[in-house]
Amino acid sequence: MSEETKREESKSKVRDDYRRYQGLMWTAIVAAVLIIIFYFCVQRYQGLLAGLSTLSMIFQPIIIGLVMAFLMNPIMKFLEEKLLPFFLKKTKNERRTKQRIRALTSVIALLLLLSIVFLFFAVVAPIFVETLNDLVRNVNEKVYNVLDWANDITKGRFEKQILGAKDDEKITYAINTAVGFIRSYFDLGEQEQVVNMVTRLGISIGRTVFNFFIGIVVSVYTLMSKEKFKAQIKKLLYGIFDPNWANVFVRIGRKTDDVFYGFIIGKIIDSIIIGVICYISMLIMQMPYAVLCSVIIGITNIIPVFGPYIGAVPTVIIIFVNNPMQGIYFLLFVLILQQIDGNIIGPKILGENTGLSSFWVVLAIVVGGGLFGVPGMIIGVPMMSVIYYICGEVATYLLQRRNLPTETEAYVDVREVDPGTNQLVLKDASDEKPKKHSRRNKKSEVTKEEKEADPEESEEP
Fold first, then answer.
1. CA pair distance 330, 278, nearest whole angstrom
2. Which of 159, 392, 402, 446 is packed most tightly, with the most Cβ within 10 A?
3. Least confident of 19-23, 185-189, 258-262, 361-365
């Protein structure tokens, strides 16, 4: 054997060894990088949050624009579906017509969104503020209403035994002390502090208004060029990664888009319906503060699972201090309303967009809320749904490579997997030997049953 042949065989062996251990090497590298990142996040948690806060302030106009585009997109798509077929019949330049229709529908969607925001601040916000002012001005009277109600239902024992007073002096003193403490908590005192607070508030409002107008421009450009942006992302993915991996990333992107749109838009529609039902019902039952309570119930309903209860606490207290019996009736009404929403309205609107069990939903809300507050509680569920989908796809791919069942139900009674045959060993208390379950095993069982059913054909001549 010549030296050149030996050299080629040696190179071939090295290449084979490299291919064999390449996957293990990359797995170890990725695991090490993830461990380092996790350790850094744990050790520098506060610094990381501060950095993220700074980045969010810098990119606030972009974030506002993307959120607005996200909310405007369903309106724009609906208008395009109605207008585009009509105008395409009357034109020869299809591309230019599509661009003009896109510009028109984007502007209409923007005007509708701004109109909704304007109506909210012009109609609902003043009533909201007036209601809050009324509560603050009449806080003493509201507390006395509760005390009178407690005395009525306990036949005076509440005042004597709980408060230990035979007259109103101690009660008045206790109420005035509590109210004074609340007011002093919000009292700024020094004039210089008032000036500083007003200055900071003015700067903050000015920055927010400026970012909002920049966000409007960003939202329109995003909607006008969203197909181009998608094409550029696909081009980048297929240019960097292998087509198989690029296809995986594209599928994950589509799934993310479907889940976020289905969940968030559905939740907003569901919350608007719940708020309107709450407002109409409170008017029918002649309960006070209908606008304030309905807005709180509707907004907090966007938060999954815990949102209805978060909104119920302040609204029940607000009505309870005005009229305790009405507060109890309102509590019962909110509980019934949330049951109707959770079992009828919500499933009809949201369907099975997330595909998560209750455990994963609660976990997503807790983790998202702990990391990012209220926004994290809202986006935590669709984000967990995407992670769950990715893990499911990875598990399915690996199980198919090992010729194992991909259905979750197949593993309920599994005790172990036979390493030699990749068969599922099932638990069976009645048999001494455990049963084996696999696709191959099913075929052998069918063959055995056929032989038992027709023994003449199974006999050899």
1. 10
2. 159
3. 185-189
